[in-house]
């Protein structure tokens, strides 16, 4: 057992299994190191020790912190499964004593022992030790039997050089790649249901994510901005922090609705947003734009509309939910904790000016002609120059009142 300076004894450990990271061959250490740094950052305020090797990662913790630490592990990309394991000294007598004591607390009829002996100096081979431990349990616990195919209780024993691990439980991680194994992307984050889900899925592939929110005060409200801050806070739980860039879109939006055909206003508004996103991607060294567009869901998300809107930029656009239906997106939103925030009824700049009959198959020539009716280029430059940025940290209670 490990003893901290404070005097607390640690007799349990969270044992993490990598899953997909194990397939990375030459880059494996980079992925594991990134996962290690992410967990270390999230747990920096807790008395933990983290160890890693090519097959496992181990978090030594104090019992009083288990709930919080488990919540962090549940929201960290790059983890396939994990277990809360009991630590014992690698000694036959101690292992047998611990297995018996721990199993006696469980309710079951059938069981199986699964021993892995990574320390080959331990004198008993894995299969032989399975039989030793099974015999111990059968001798001391009445009315139980061995079932190697479908046991009620699977007893896992991992024997290492100095400490060994005993565990029964298995918790599913959220998988994916650790955040930071891919470079930065910019998420177009509205207050709706789709874009936070798109951001979550982008981070799941290892992307560092900044969020960009287009606001149009006084047409949109302080509450709408605060809603996006809450969504960013929730998404930051899956990384360590998110930078939220707030764009003043009011001057551009007012010029669009003053000068352009009503049915083309949404198309031109989205083209302006994309131009701003391209400028911000250069400013913040981002490689891609991420958004929550789902094919056919609204007028600006038909294939023709997306082609006309996308044509104004050269930066790649990733649409993680493009082929999901609304119910599938809502299911993910509930799972990741963004749904209840997204349905708070404060409108963003995309919804407050929606025309009665937006065009669903716009012409690129007409869009160009309409947007040439006002000097949008200088307005885009000003929007990029005047962006406000806040850093939202997952474990901070800061309310960002200076921006509100």
Number of strand elements:
17
Q: Briefly, what CATH class of the largest domain?
A: Alpha Beta
What is the number of domains?
2
Distance between the termini: 49 Å
Low-pLDDT sequence parts: 1-10
In round numbers, the mean pLDDT is 91
The name CATH uses for the topology of the largest domain is: Rossmann fold
Q: What is the strand content? A: 15-25%
Secondary-structure class: alpha/beta
Q: Tell me the number of helical segments per DSSP (H or I, 4 or more residues long).
A: 14
CATH architecture of the largest domain: 3-Layer(aba) Sandwich
Output the CATH homologous superfamily of the largest domain: HUPs
Q: Note the overall shape.
A: elongated
Describe the biggest sheet? 9 strands, mixed
Range of helix content: 25-40%
The value of Rg in angstroms is 27 Å
Describe the protein's architecture and organization:
This protein is α/β, with parallel strands linked by helices. It has 2 domains: 2-173, VC0802-like (2-Layer Sandwich), CATH 3.30.2130.30; 181-393, 3-Layer(aba) Sandwich (Rossmann fold). The chain contains 14 helices and 17 strands. Strands 3, 4, 5, 6, 7, 8, 9, 10 and 11 form a 9-stranded mixed beta sheet that branches. A 6-stranded mixed beta sheet has the order 16-15-12-13-14-17, with helices on both faces. Strands 1-2 form a two-stranded antiparallel sheet. Helix 3 packs across helix 4 (126-140), helix 7 (250-259) packs antiparallel against helix 8 (265-283) and helix 8 (265-283) crosses helix 9. The chain starts with a strand and ends in an 11-residue tail after the last strand. Residues 1-10 have low confidence and may be disordered.
